[in-house]
Amino acid sequence: MSLILTTIVSFLVSLTTCLVCFWIGKKKSAKKTIQKVAPLRESEPEEKNFYEEDSNVPIKDYTFDNYFTDDPTFIKKMKSMLDNYSVTNPVMLRGPTGSGKTHLMRAFENYLLEKVPSKKVCLISAEAFLNEFVNAIQHKTNMEFRKKYRNLDALFIDDFNYLRNKTACQEELFYAIAELLEKNAFVCFGVTAPLSLKEGFSDRFINLITGIQIDMPCPGFDAKRRKIMQTFEKANCFINGDLVDYLAKPEVGLNELVGICQKIIFMKQLEGKGCVNLEIDDIKELIK
After folding, report:
1. 155 - beta bridge partners?
2. 3-state secondary structure (DSSP) of residue 23
3. Are 103 and 62 in contact (CB under 8 A)?
4. Which of 60, 94, 98, 246 fits 193 for a cystine, CB–CB 3.0-4.6 Å?
5. 118 pLDDT higher than 90
6. Residue 195: pLDDT above 80?
């Protein structure tokens, strides 16, 4: 009996010793693995800081040359304003959706860069600006956010109405704009008319951004015809004058008009017929 107990005890001791040795060996192996893998992480490229990226690339298609208006002096006035914007700064573009505010701001942006390619410019929607602001707070990158927007040579904010009643964001933007204006950077807003700045914006914010207000010219028949012809020509499509006149309806805005033209081009390309000498009856079903 004594021999049996001695054997069992010896077995348990041996088993325990093996388990301990196995656990120690596995721990050392894991440590070596960690030490071996860790340097690989150090050699990986650092994650880019969003605020240091040049994410705002001007869209070259939006220029004064393809901005159409029936006022022959409008473009000349806009260029003159940009050549001496310190007198009118900041600038507010007012007009309903589809009136060409974004196109005109892009044209401003490209015009400034043509004169001085080294300018740091940013065109952003008010919603995107608010999202960046909230993200900066959440990730504690406020300083990077401020550096991005206060070191610009030109700032464009589209759909400015979106910031109504966004008190904290307005406060941040107030100081950014004040600093930009102090160093004579160009500041431009796009707002949907009618807009009462007294509703949802602080008095000091209104006083800061009150500069020149430009009402967007309503595109007339001739401006629409030129836009239609340009849209079709860019797609290597050539249509007759009667069809151009038919499409240039007075109740259709430029953005909607371009969409209609692009739909016609796309549908005709799918049919394999192209869009040469299209007749009015050919497109009535396409633009319903």
Report:
1. 122, 187
2. helix
3. yes
4. 94
5. yes
6. no
